[in-house]
Structure formats: C-alpha cells, structure tokens
Design a protein that fits this description.
The complex is a heterodimer of chains A (485) and B (212).
Chain A lengths: L9 H18 L1 E3 L2 H9 L3 E3 L4 E3 L2 H10 L4 E4 L5 E5 L5 E4 L5 E2 L12 H12 L7 E2 L12 H12 L4 E3 L6 H13 L2 H6 L3 E5 L6 E2 L1 H12 L4 E3 L4 E2 L7 H22 L5 E2 L5 E2 L12 H16 L5 E3 L10 H17 L3 E5 L1 E2 L4 E2 L1 H18 L11 H10 L6 H10 L12 H6 L5 H14 L8 H17 L10
Parallel strand pairs in A: 1-11, 6-17, 7-19, 8-9, 9-10, 10-12, 12-14, 13-15, 16-17
Antiparallel strand pairs in A: 1-3, 2-3, 4-5, 18-19
Chain B lengths: L2 H10 L3 H13 L4 H21 L5 H24 L7 E6 L7 H12 L3 E4 L6 H11 L3 E5 L7 H12 L7 E5 L5 H7 L3 E2 L3 H12 L3
Parallel strand pairs in B: 1-2, 1-3, 3-4, 4-5
The chains are: A alpha/beta (485), B alpha/beta (212).
Bound molecules: CO-5-methoxybenzimidazolylcobamide.
C-alpha cells in the first residue's frame, strides 16, 4: 500500500475547479502577448484588445484538458529513460535559478561563477535520489544575455541527467532549443524523447506576461514539456484562505494548459507551482511554511483530478545557512510531497526563498529525498508468512545477520544513507574527527566531484554544443567562455 | 483625551472615517494644519511603524493605518500648501527594463505612500530614460529602482550613468532594492542606498528628505 496524504475532499476539488473555470470565462485572463490573444481568439475566446484580456470558453478548457497527456517521461542526454512523470510516482530535482551560492563554512552567500556551476553539475551525477538536474543557479561571469542558456550548456556538458530549466527572455529560447536539438539530432527525436522541462510563470492574479506566455508557445511548438509555475501569494497577491489561493492557482494553471494545448495538442505539461503564504511580518514568501506546503499538496490533488501530472517547489528552506531550520523545512516538504504523490518536486539544495544554492545542502537533501522515496515503497510482506521458520532460525543461530532472508531483503527493506547522515556511536564519531553535518557534507561534495566521469555524449555533439554557445557568447560581446565542455 | 491624541489613535486603528472627522473637528477648532499633521497623523503613523517593527501588528494593519492617514492628509494638503508647508517628498519608482517582477516594488510604493510621500510609479520593464525623464518632469528627490533578476540588475547602472549625464547625480538620491541586490552592488554602481525591504526603504527615504 502506498502511503498517502489527502487534504481535499472530491466535492471541494469540484467546487474549486468550477470556480476557477468561471473566473477564466467571466473575469478573463490578462495576456500581454498579441499572438497568444490571437491564438485564443481563433479558438473561440472573446478578446478585449484594449484591456489585453481573453475570456475563455468552457470548450477551450475541456479540449485542452482532453489533449494534455496524463503523464510523460524524460530521457537523459544519451536517450535513456530517466524520469517517469505519471501516476503517483514522485521524483526530486534541485531548486532552480538561485541568485547566490553558499560556500561551506561561510556565513554569507556570494555570486556564483561558471566554475561553481561545473562543480554542481559534476556533483549531480553522483546523487541517485535526484532523478534530474536543474539549471540550479546563474553563473555571473558571463554577460547577462547568455546567463540562462550558458547554464543549460554547462549542465549538458557535465551531467547526463535531464534538465529542469527555463528562459529569462523570449530570445534565449532559440539557443536553449538549439542546444537540445544538437543533443538529440532532430526536432522529431527531441519531441519523442524530451530532455528538458521549461518553467513558465503566469503572474498573479491570472495574468501572463509577454515573455513567459511566449515561452509557453515556443516550447509547445517543439513539444518541449512545460511546468506552469503559478505563484499565488496568500493574503497579498491571492486570497488569504487556502481555498481562495487554490482557486486562483487553478485558474492560472488551467490558462497555461490551454495556451500549450491550443498551440500544439498533446504537448507534455506539468500542473505546477510555487505558491506561498505571504509573511505579513517580514514581507516575504516563505517556502518552508507549512501553509505553503499545504497549498502545494492540495493543488497536486486538483491537478491529479484533472488527469495531469504535477510539479511543486517543495522540499526547500528559507534558512540562510545549512542549519536545523534548513533540515526541518526541507524534510517536511519532501515527505509531504512524497505522501501527496507530486510527480516532480523542485527544491533540493535551495535556501533563502529560492535565492541561494548550497552544494552541501544538495548532498543532505539527496538523503532526505532517498528517505522519502523509501517511505513510498511502503510496507509489503516479503517471505514473512508463515513466520515460524524465521524465528526458529534466529533462536538457533542467535541472530539473523547472515540469514539468507536478511541478505535477500536488506537493501530493499532498509534505507542506508550516505556518510552525511551521522549513524556512528559517539566514540567512533569522535574518533573520526567529530565532524559536523556541514563538514561531512563538504567531504561528500569533494568526493563526488572528484569521482565525476566525463559525459558520454559523442564528441561531435559536444563540439556542436560549444559552437552554438561560442557563437552566442560572441554576439553577447565575449570571445571566450570561462568554461567550455 | 485631547483631539490630536484621539486623531492619532483613530489612525492607529485604521478608522479612515474617524480620522477625516477628527481632522475636520481640529480645523474647526482653529488648530493650524501643521500641528494636526505632526501631532495627529504623523505621530500616529510613527507608533504604527514602531509596533510593526516590534511584530505587535502586521503589514495589513500598517496599510490600513496609511489609508486612514490619507483620509486626513487629503483634507490638510491644500491648507498646508497654502501655508507653504511641504508635505513630504516625491519618489519616482519602477522595476528596471527586462524585469517583470513588480510585487516587491508595488509593496515599497504602497509603504512610501503610507509614509506620506508622493510616489510616481512607472510600473515594470522601465527603460533607464523613463526613470530619469520622470524624475526631471516631477522634480522628484528620489529615484527608486527594483530588480529581481541577476540579468536585469545591471540596468540600474545605466540609470545611474544617465543621471550623471543629465546632471541629476548627487541631486536626486538613487535607491535600489530586490532579491539579487546588496549594499556592495549599490556602492559598485554608484547608487546612494540599497534597501532590503519596504520599512527600510521608508526609513532611508525619510532620512534623505530630512523628515526621519
Ligand atoms: C526602490 O527601492 C526599493 C527598495 C526595496 C525593494 C525594491 C526597491 N524592490 C524590492 N525591494 C525589497 O522590498 C520588497 C518588500 O519587502 C522586497 O521585494 P521582493 O520582490 O524581494 O519581495 C516581494 C514582497 C515578494 N517576493 C516576490 O514577489 C518574488 C518571489 C519570487 C518567488 C518570484 C516571483 C513571485 C515571480 N517570478 Co520570478 N520570482 C523569484 C522570486 C524568488 C525570490 N527569492 O525573490 C525569482 C526572482 N524569479 C526568478 C525567475 C528565474 C523568474 N521569475 C519570473 C516570473 C515570476 C512571476 C511572474 C511568476 C512572479 C512575479 C510576479 C510579479 N508580478 O512580480 C520569470 C521572469 C521573467 C522576467 N523577464 O521578469 C523567471 C525568469 C522564470 C521564468 N522562466 O519564467 C528567479 C531569479 C533568478 C535569477 N538568478 O535572477 C527567482 C529568484 C526564483 C527562482 N529561484 O527561480 C525586497 O526585495
């Protein structure tokens, strides 16, 4: 039996969805993109051009939900299946697009550089509980114009896992798409075996900017999966109640599904988000708040009821350092997400309201995610009935350490975390240096980075990636990238 | 309890109707607009600000009080202008070009207005030229820039440089804020101050205007 958490009744889900649909049709969606307004108009939406508003029809919503796939898979850069985003399968991926990086032992974060990104991508190869990588932070030693695409280039160059990413501008899409085409060889191959997911954000309340709605359209044209990151901020840019925020989230996300599906029916999408309760004392959007996590888990139920795979920014923390708050908030989120069945959970490695990335935290989070995935395997009998023989064996041998039953099942039944989780008795812990969590995580980062093996992409593909990136760098005004693959 | 203390307390409670009524009564009783402003409205907002910082009340209480303050201030403004009393400063604010994040900027604008300042909000995705032209047009004392993306914060430097070009640098204070910003970055680009949140922005602007 898969352990599960439910927060909404079926009846409540129906009411929330009905209300959201009504908002889309009667209040409409503000869309700052003439092309997208035109697209919707072509499918029967009434448009108020002056107000840049589209009034959806029930038919648009129904048809979009019909054509959206119930799940999809991601494939690594070698074309192997890597992530299954369907049913109630839960996967974890690092948080995305942090502004700063926190070094081990530092009390302040700093701006990251390309060399940091390479260490991150190498580390990602060694973390088995994070099924995909993300473009986790922004190297700031290249011109702004290529900061988003350069992350993808480095990710593809140093780690084979599929990538959760996104553009900061409309223009960046072209290069980020070409990098993927270089890996897969053709647009058909890319659509058949998606390599990335692009995050595209509606704006609260129920709006789409020119940039992000265009990103949705561009991704759909190439069958590149999209996750809609709706961010109702409860009590500020969304109603203060959970239900009110969920209605807004549903409307914003459904509008995204429609833009994708009308552009290209069948485009893979994730019913995602990064909502937060708004902290009225500090003017902040806490990701580690229990209410934030409740909204995440609840909209996951709504997405599933609509037949869509889901995503959430969950399992991350607002702490500034790798401290107990960081562990508590990340673990609470990762566990709740698993119990809810969120398909892709973005957040590992992240601190400070999605602003700061820590490689040491990534190593810790890999263990948190591993524990959560273990929980999901649930409890099932394995040669346990009848029980008598096992107990006779124990009585005869005095223990079961070397029993065939133990050896057969040990690795599935017990989750054995890596060295970052301290399991030594106190004397041994002291003897081995009395290391803090941060020190253990640091050592693990170094070990895994050193163990990195080159990505097995064809050298021709690597050269093509570098050619594309170099050309973009030249256009952005530099003749040499800080790191090439 | 005297009238101005009652005015201050109604403001703290966010009762706009009561604030307007007591302001009218104070004027009818022959009090000058300046003491009504200082000992009634501003005194009330100061208490609200202090209690917010102490976590005794929350942002919605502050904004409600600010709204109530305007119910009184709107009555006083013409009289203050006639008496030649300045009612605060003018701030031009916006999110820089290429950046669509405006929640933080909006909140800062609300809080600056709440503190009695006139705010010209240019919105988001604002070109450097527009910041400078608006500051000149409105005779603003402060230009406030917000950025949430590492890729857009360099636009702030362009605004600073343009202010230099147009002879505004040093005359108009330049403040910056947003998640990727820092005091060091503000220094690096030649801005006058980095503000980490709305309350901080109000403090900084008031200091510049000499009304803190
Ligand atoms: C003038 O004087 C001053 C003084 C003080 C000032 C000031 C000016 N400005 C701010 N302050 C200060 O006072 C305010 C009040 O306390 C504070 O303002 P804040 O804005 O910090 O605080 C607000 C009250 C609440 N906070 C916020 O509103 C920002 C929260 C986060 C989660 C966020 C949001 C909400 C949004 N986003 Co975006 N977003 C993130 C943010 C994560 C983060 N850690 O900040 C960030 C900034 N976003 C990011 C990204 C990547 C993006 N976002 C995008 C879009 C959006 C939404 C539309 C969904 C939404 C914005 C809605 C809106 N109308 O603003 C896209 C941007 C497109 C573009 N060209 O702008 C997109 C590119 C995503 C995509 N691929 O579509 C990341 C930036 C990465 C980087 N390294 O630069 C990000 C850190 C999240 C992440 N890790 O991915 C202070 O900073």
């Amino acid at each position: 039996m898969r352990p599960t958490v439910h927060l909404l009744s079926e009846e409540l889900i129906e009411r929330i969805v009905a209300e959201a649909r009504d908002l889309l049709c009667t209040l409409g969606v503000e869309i700052h993109n003439p092309g997208v307004l035109e697209l919707l108009h072509g499918h029967g939406a009434r448009i108020d051009a002056a107000a840049q508003r589209a009034f959806f029809t029930p038919d648009i919503i129904d048809r979009s939900l019909e054509s959206a796939p119930h799940g999809f898979k991601l494939y690594d850069s070698l074309g192997q299946e890597a992530v299954d985003l369907s049913g109630d399968r839960t996967n974890y991926t690092p948080g995305s697009a942090a502004i700063t990086i926190l070094d081990h032992g530092a009390d302040r974060s700093r701006r990251p550089a390309a060399a940091d990104y390479v260490r991150y991508a190498k580390l990602m190869c060694g973390l088995p509980n994070l099924a995909s990588q993300s473009t986790a932070f922004i190297p700031q030693d290249v011109p702004e114009k290529i900061q988003d695409s350069y992350r993808l280039y480095l990710s593809l160059g140093f780690c084979e896992k599929p990538v959760v990413t996104g553009c900061f501008t409309v223009e960046a899409f072209e290069l980020m798409k070409d990098l993927q085409l270089a890996v897969r060889g053709s647009a058909e191959a890319l659509a058949a075996r998606p390599l990335t997911i692009f995050s595209c954000c509606p704006t609260a309340p129920i709006k789409w900017s020119d940039v992000t709605s265009q990103n949705v359209v561009d991704c759909a044209r190439f069958g590149i999966p999209v996750e809609y990151i709706s961010m109702p901020l409860s009590g500020f840019m969304a109603p203060v109640t959970m239900v009110g925020s969920l209605i807004q989230h549903t409307a914003e996300t459904l509008s995204g599904v429609a833009i994708s599906q009308l552009t290209r029916p069948g485009t893979p999408v994730l019913y995602g988000g990064s909502p937060a309760v708004f902290d009225v004392r500090y003017e902040t959007t806490p990701m580690g708040d229990i209410g934030t996590m409740m909204i995440d888990c609840a909209y996951n139920e709504i997405g599933k009821s609509l037949g869509l795979p889901t995503q959430a920014y969950i399992g991350l923390s607002d702490a500034k350092l790798l401290d107990a708050q960081a562990g508590f908030e990340s673990a609470a989120g990762a566990l709740l997400a698993a119990l809810s069945g969120i398909n892709n959970c973005s957040g590992s490695g992240m601190l400070d309201f999605e602003s700061c990335f820590s490689l040491e935290k990534l190593v810790l989070d890999n263990e948190i995610c591993g524990s959560a995935l273990h929980l999901l395997r649930g409890i099932t009998p394995k040669e346990d009935f009848p029980a008598r023989a096992r107990f006779e064996e124990m009585l005869a041998e005095g223990h079961l350490l070397i029993s065939a039953h133990t050896r057969r099942h040990l690795r599935q039944e017990h989750y054995l975390p890596g060295p970052v989780i301290d399991r030594a008795n106190k004397s041994r812990w002291a003897e081995e240096g009395g290391k803090t969590l941060g020190e253990r995580a640091r050592a693990e980062v170094e070990r895994l980075v050193a163990a990195h093996r080159p990505v097995r992409l064809d050298s021709g593909v690597k050269q093509q990636l570098t050619r594309l990136m170099n050309a973009a760098a030249l256009r952005a005004g530099i003749d040499r990238l800080p790191v090439s693959i | 309890m005297d009238l101005l203390t009652r005015l201050s307390e109604s403001l703290q409670g966010g009762d706009a109707d009561q604030v307007a009524e007591l302001t009218r009564q104070a004027l009818a009783a022959g009090l000058a607009p300046k003491p009504i402003l200082d000992q009634g409205l501003i005194a009330g907002m100061t208490v609200v600000g202090d209690r917010f910082k102490a976590h005794e009340i929350f942002l919605p209480d502050v904004l409600l009080a600010a709204k109530a303050m305007y119910a009184g201030l709107d009555l006083l403004r013409p009289l203050l202008a006639k008496a030649g009393v300045a009612t605060g400063g003018r701030v031009v604010i916006g999110t820089v070009r290429g950046d669509l994040h405006d929640i933080g900027k909006n909140l800062v604008a609300i809080m600056l207005r709440g503190a009695g300042l006139e705010v010209i909000d240019l919105g988001k995705d604002v070109a450097p030229e527009r910041f400078v032209a608006a500051a000149q047009e409105h005779g603003a004392q402060v230009i406030g820039m917000s950025a949430l993306l590492t890729t857009t914060m360099p636009v702030m430097r362009q605004v600073v440089d343009l202010c230099r070009e147009r002879g505004l640098y040093g005359k108009v204070k330049l403040i910056v804020g947003g998640a990727p910003l820092s005091a060091e970055y503000a220094r690096e680009i030649g801005a006058d101050a980095y503000c980490f949140d709305g309350v901080n922005a109000v403090d900084v602007v008031k200091r510049y205007l000499g009304t803190a």
